[in-house]
């Protein structure tokens, strides 16, 4: 990333044209340059209406200006926001003026957030939560991002790290000052009981990671079955639009199609697959191969069969994930051989299917703190393993070292320990103005 001594600027609002465009400046020259363009910057974190002029005196726009003195700003540096009219021409003119000042440059992707991290305004968990909040498309994604981005998850990890530090301090005290009367004597009672409880808390937290992954990345529902079972018709009915081609010809669907649906705040990703059958057609064979891969990655499989039809062969699917769906209810009577019977044509049974999926999702996540990134899960597993080593180890000095390693793993999650190599990857996820 370019020099941190520069004052940076970028559009921090949405795509242009828009009703409003917010251009943010951050760095040591932010107030000085804003004052040159606007005459003065309002004091005391107040908004003021100013005329923005080029350096030759030409009026560019009228804008609200807000100033935030560091360290009490998003980045921890002096920041100024120009709330302009959302015209491409206005923003381009502002960019042209700002670029002409020495020491000013356009911000790189995620650079405002990176400066906030480097100045101690956010930790890495909060940064990633902020990225997820910006990208959130459903209510549950928003809630999960808020828990992470506004410090709840970081507070949990800090408390765990505090308990590990306290345990190490007690162990060191017993090792170094065992003869002193004011040093707690029973490490096994005072420390290891708490470390045992901490281990169980970590394991429970890690076990909830799948829920976080599903909320963040979507619940994968694969629609499978033999040809002409109504798979593409069901996808279209769920999406309420024509996503897939529907025809009576067997093998019409050759590739995997998918549609994302917001189901009462949860992101559900439905995948339509090729009909599962033996075929001499090489293209259809490839479609079946891809369908098998999708089935292996599914969170739920909707196995479709036309009601009263005779299965051609055993599809060999994992029972735990399978929901048996009888289709074409408008042509047949309902059957107890299926979990749900429906008609994509009439819509009968579709509400029952949606309720079935939603009922499972509502049990999946209660709104509690859960890890939702593989990076977090990997470091949590490391920390948990080190705590287990300490609980089962021999020798206080070795066990104390295991606790130190556990605290170090937790520190890598929040960015307090050895994460320099991760920063470019994490901050590149952001748009330029954030």
TrEMBL record:
SUPFAM superfamilies: P-loop containing nucleoside triphosphate hydrolases, TrmE connector domain. Signal peptide: none annotated. GTP binds at residues 228-233, 247-253, 272-275. Belongs to the TRAFAC class TrmE-Era-EngA-EngB-Septin-like GTPase superfamily. TrmE GTPase family. This is tRNA modification GTPase MnmE. GO terms for molecular function: hydrolase activity. Binds 1 potassium ion per subunit. Its cofactor is K(+). Keywords: Cytoplasm, GTP-binding, Hydrolase, Magnesium, Metal-binding, Nucleotide-binding, Potassium, tRNA processing. Residues 218-362 form the TrmE-type G domain. InterPro entries: AAA+_ATPase (IPR003593), G_TrmE (IPR031168), GTP-bd (IPR006073), GTP-bd_TrmE_N (IPR018948), GTPase_MnmE (IPR004520), MnmE_dom2 (IPR027368), MnmE_helical (IPR025867), P-loop_NTPase (IPR027417). Mg(2+) binds at residues 232, 253. Homodimer. Heterotetramer of two MnmE and two MnmG subunits. It comes from Rhizobium puerariae. SMART domains: AAA. It comes from the Bacteria.
């Amino acid at each position: 990333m370019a020099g941190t001594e520069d004052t940076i600027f970028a559009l921090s609002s949405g795509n242009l044209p828009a009703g409003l465009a917010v251009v943010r400046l951050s760095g040591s020259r932010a107030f000085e340059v804003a004052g040159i363009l606007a005459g003065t910057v309002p004091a005391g974190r107040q908004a003021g209406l100013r005329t923005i002029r080029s350096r030759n005196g030409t009026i560019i726009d009228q804008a609200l200006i807000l100033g935030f003195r560091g360290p009490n700003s998003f980045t921890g540096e002096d920041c100024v926001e120009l709330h302009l009219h959302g015209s491409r021409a206005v923003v381009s003119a502002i960019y042209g003026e700002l670029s002409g000042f020495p020491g000013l440059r356009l911000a790189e992707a995620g650079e405002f957030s990176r400066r906030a991290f480097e100045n101690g305004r956010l930790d890495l968990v909060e940064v990633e939560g902020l990225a997820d909040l910006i990208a959130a498309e459903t209510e549950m994604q928003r809630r999960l991002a808020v828990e992470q981005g506004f410090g709840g998850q970081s507070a949990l990890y800090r408390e765990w790290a505090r308990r590990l530090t306290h345990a190490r301090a007690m162990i060191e005290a017993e090792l170094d000052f065992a003869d002193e009367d004011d040093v707690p004597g029973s490490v096994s009672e005072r420390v290891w009981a708490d470390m045992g409880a901490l281990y169980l808390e970590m394991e429970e937290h890690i076990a909830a990671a799948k829920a976080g992954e599903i909320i963040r990345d979507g619940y994968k529902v694969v629609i499978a079955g033999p040809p002409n079972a109504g798979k593409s018709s069901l996808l279209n009915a769920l999406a309420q639009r024509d996503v897939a081609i529907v025809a009576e010809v067997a093998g019409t669907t050759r590739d995997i199609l998918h549609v994302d649906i917001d189901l009462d705040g949860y992101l559900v990703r439905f995948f339509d697959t090729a009909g599962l059958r033996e075929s001499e057609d090489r293209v259809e064979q490839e479609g079946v191969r891809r369908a098998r891969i999708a089935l292996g990655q599914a969170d739920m499989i909707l196995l479709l069969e036309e009601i009263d039809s005779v299965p051609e062969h055993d599809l060999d699917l994992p029972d735990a994930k399978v929901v048996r769906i009888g289709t074409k209810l408008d042509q047949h009577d309902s059957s107890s051989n299926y979990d749900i019977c429906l008609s994509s044509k009439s819509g009968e049974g579709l509400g029952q299917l949606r309720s079935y999926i939603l009922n499972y999702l509502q049990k999946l996540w209660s709104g509690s703190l859960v890890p939702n990134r593989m990076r977090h899960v990997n470091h949590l597993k490391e920390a948990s393993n080190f705590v287990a080593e300490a609980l089962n180890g021999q020798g206080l000095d070795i066990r104390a070292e295991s606790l130190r390693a556990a605290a170090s793993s937790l520190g890598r999650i929040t960015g307090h320990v050895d994460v320099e190599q991760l920063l470019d990857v994490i901050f590149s996820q952001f748009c330029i103005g954030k």
